[in-house]
UniProtKB/TrEMBL annotation:
GO terms for biological process: cytochrome complex assembly. This is Putative thioredoxin. One of its GO terms (molecular function) is antioxidant activity. It is found in: Cell envelope. Residues 44-191 form the Thioredoxin domain. It comes from the Bacteria. Its main location: other. GO terms for cellular component: cell envelope. The keyword Secreted does not apply. It comes from Spirilliplanes yamanashiensis.
Length: 198
């Protein structure tokens, strides 16, 4: 019988491997390039009703500017978490939409957080500067943050996950996401009644 500890270790290893494969090679600069390695059977986008939502494991790390970060500091807000890399052509396609959605919702109790993976700090910082990204990003070259989301694994780059005000995963997009999709999902979650969305 496989122990729960062994099962958890296998799950973590599988997520890390999937993220690594999703970013391998010199993909063509098209949105499809970022979704070619999507795990078989995983939905491209999924909305989770409140009873089915799960809370990620604790997420801590360091932002691109070296500042310590703890995801718990954003509890009480709707949080948009986006996995990206400067090497990722589809990320370049969707970043302007992410920035526009951030600017449209920042006064509504919504926070955005990037998770930069398989990158150098200089390349990631240059990307954020070039695209005028106004929200912070965790520098996560080894892909450790993804392991905290193993119930809803971000198995491709880009992936965008939206957390409700209780810190639970409410929506996941394993694809290039548009401003309209983001704003619709964000506002639907933000208007849920009560702090737990019930």
């Amino acid at each position: 019988m496989i122990s729960s500890r062994s099962r958890g270790a296998c799950t973590a290893a599988a997520i890390a491997a999937a993220l690594a494969l999703a970013g391998c090679g010199d993909a063509a600069p098209t949105p499809a390039a970022g979704t070619a390695d999507l795990a078989a059977g995983a939905p491209v986008s999924q909305l989770y009703p409140p009873p089915e939502r799960t809370t990620p494991q604790p997420v801590t790390g360091e932002l691109l500017d070296g500042t310590p970060f703890d995801l718990l500091s954003l509890r009480g807000k709707v949080v948009v978490v986006n996995w990206w890399g400067s090497w990722c052509a589809p990320c370049r396609v969707e970043t302007p939409d992410l920035v526009a959605a951030y600017e449209a919702t920042e006064e509504e109790g919504v926070a955005f957080l990037g998770v930069n993976v398989r990158d150098t700090r200089d390349a990631a910082t240059s990307f954020s500067t070039d695209f005028r990204v106004p929200y912070p990003s965790v520098f996560d070259p080894a892909g450790r943050v993804a392991l905290a989301f193993r119930d809803v694994p971000p198995t491709v780059v880009p992936t965008t996950v939206i957390l409700d005000r209780s810190g639970r995963v409410a929506t996941a997009f394993r694809k290039v996401v548009t401003q309209d999709e983001l704003e619709s999902a964000i506002r639907g979650i933000a208007t849920e009644s009560g702090p737990t969305g019930g």
